[in-house]
Write the structure tokens for this entry.
Amino acid sequence: MIKKEDNVIVVAGKDRGKKSKVLRAFPDRNLLLVEGVNLVKKHQKKRTEREKGQTLTKAMPLNSSNVMIFCGRCEKGVRIGSKVVGEGKVRACASCKSEI
Ligand SMILES: [Zn+2]
């Protein structure tokens, strides 16, 4: 499960290969808002005569299957596993077992 603040890498779509950070997670809809990823241009109409119309770029949530957790030790996108620490379980990289 990918959560807010996780470092991820995009593995599909136009932003493939981009590394970034999760700004927000929507687990019920399987969506993630990732910083600087899936940017959409929005034209803002000028509201007054003196104001200039402008183009804003906005990050849109993307399907969580398009990103993977980025493991700093493996230096690649990895599957998440878990490991037992004391009484509980923590998320860990599935290949090198370092904590995520
Ligand atoms: Zn790893």
In short: Residues 71, 73-74, 78, 93, 95-96, 98 surround zinc ion (CB under 6 Å). The first strand starts at residue 7 and ends at 10. The chain has no helices and ten strands. Strands lie at 7-10, 19-26, 31-34, 39-44, 54-59, 62-63, 67-71, 76-78, 80-85, 88-93.
